Amino acid sequence: TSMPSALIELGFLSNESERKYLVTEKGKNLMAQSIFSAISDYKQRFDGRNTKPSHATDKTSSSKSQSKPQK
Known about the structure:
This protein is an all-alpha fold. Helix content is 52%, strand content 0%. It contains 3 helices and no strands. The chain has helices at 16-22, 25-49, 63-67. The radius of gyration is 23 Å and the shape is elongated. 0% of the residues are buried.
C-alpha cells in the first residue's frame, strides 16, 4: 500500500526571530492550525474529485437490480 506524506518546514531554528516565534504558544497554535487547515482543504478537494455523485447510475447494472432494496 502507499502512504501519503508531506514534509512541512515551518521556519528555521537557526534564525533567531523565527525560533523565538515558533516556541511561543501563539506560534505553535498558528502553525498547528495552519497545517490542519491546509490538509483539510486538500482532502476536501481531493475527495471531491474522486467520488461519484449520489445520483450517478451504474450502466452495467440492470434497472431491476437498482430498484431492489439492499439487505
